[in-house]
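Researcher: Next sequence.
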Amino acid sequence: MTSIRDFRTDIQGLRGIAVLSVVAFHANEKLLPGGFVGVDIFFVISGFLITRILLRDLAHGEMTIAGFYQRRVQRLFPALFVMLVAVLLAAALLLSPRDYSELARTALSTVFFVSNFDFYLLSGYFDGVAAEKPLLHTWSLAVEEQFYILFPLLLALLFKHARRRLLAIVAFGALVLFAVSVWGANEHRTAAFFLTPFRAFALAIGALLALTPISEQMPRSVRAATSLAGLALISASFFLISRTTVFPGFAALAPCLGAALVIFAGSGGQSLGGRAISFPALTFFGAISYSLYLWHWPILAFARHFLGRAPEPWPAALLVGVAIVAAAASWRFVEQPVLRSSMSRTRAFGLAGAAMALVSLAALGIRSAEGLPGRFTPAAQALFSAAGDYNHHRHLCHSDIDRPIAYAQNCVFGKPHAPPTIAVWGDSAGAELVVALGEMLGARGQAVMQITSSACPPALDYQMLPGRPDCAAHNSATVENLVRDTQVRTVLLTINYQRYPTEDRLRLFAGLERTVAALQASGKTVVLVYPFPNPWFDTPDLLGRRAQRGEPLNTLGVSFASYARDNAPIITFFDALSVRTGATSFRPTDGLCTGEVCPAHHPEYGALYWDGNHISVSGARLALTQLPAGL
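Model: Next structure:
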């Protein structure tokens, strides 16, 4: 086995690259579209270093599970729990009861390193709400620790009973994990992002690298070429991968192999690429990378909460500066003293258990008190509660990738047992509209069918890959069933236009036109529901905080001019389509907007949106006051 150097500046520089890429991506995605792959670089580094330490201990007969976890506790717990306490305290001043309760839930899952499961259940990584979850970033810590529950035991068993085949077995395991990741990225995208089985291959690549024999006599030219190739792969990943990329899967290979090549090149001696990333500024960020990773995200998330949107570039840069100062202090006064201490195993585990217990009790208290609503005035609490003004049958009536709903099982709203004569077909923009329309029709003895599906507009042959691979099939089946359904005479088509990629616009419009043609050919009346003037900020949260501060509510909203600008392509298309086909136009802005402003609050109807991009049931009632006559 080759000699083991305890410290490598190239790996420290690689850590710096990884953390700075993640921070840059979170501060301003346009700076580095693929910056989130820094997490995968961290995974490779971790797999390499941890496996190397375990192999050293196994070779010397010193490896114990208790000793391994003591090192993990001293490395991870101090900075993590200081951050958790700070976040819980800050959130008491900044978050609504609902959000504070959810934070307490995720703090509890973070304590036990299962937050990746929690965030998988709560939301997707890239949606607007996710960007405001202060502990979202802890999913990666959970992945690592779940990997290290079994890996040390497995490695010890293989070292003892199959040492000669150890490299081949780990290589086979890495291939299997990679295949699982590729499958998951294509079939279950959110799960593949968060859950350990789909991310573990990056850690396995690091482990495989630690097991690979390396010659101390590797030619300098080979080390240089290898290291530069690795840096090139990493750099390309930052700019060629983005949130729309199928990830992890094949795309994650580039940053993972890039990191592995840089580490490999430097294992037999300093490499050209290794020297290039070993300068003091970068190794400084490598040193504070753990604390910077911990602190940057909650600071940015709280800023998004307070502002109701992502901060502009200069404020974001200032917030990153604050995170760097906090990380440097955490590294200097929290991480380093504990790592350098000669703490006994009993004391280390005792303090870790106490920290887990205290934060867990605090989180459970906040959770059981439903987010401590007493922090706010009754008026503020009433506005916060508008976050619950949505279609409460979404879990049964709204399709998504994991829960497709057959046509015969679609929900019906209105007069009980009345056959639906109207259908609302669309993406999630229609889920609340159908409730309000059901109330209106129920008073007439009629009913409406809900046909809504997440990220799936009612456009034939269209799907927003890779998010909804079943969308085209869903739409085809919906048209076939609607054509056969003689009871449904009118179909409202709804679409949250701004959720779809600009490059898909022509395909989307062509699919919508085919849908209208097919429905009209079967004798249906088609109603084109123009986009709602979504504010794209958490409406109940901002309204509640304004009420708490005694600020006016009628100034919160979006201008009609910005709505018209942002939705100009779909408005122009609907106008022309209505003229060509005779389809009826329904413009929700006629009821929701007053002159030049589309407010987020109405004195009589209350909050008009239950989040940033979905009309509330109350808002839908207001919009329907301007529903075209005869419907």
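Model: The chain is about 60% helix and 5% strand. The longest strand covers residues 447-453.
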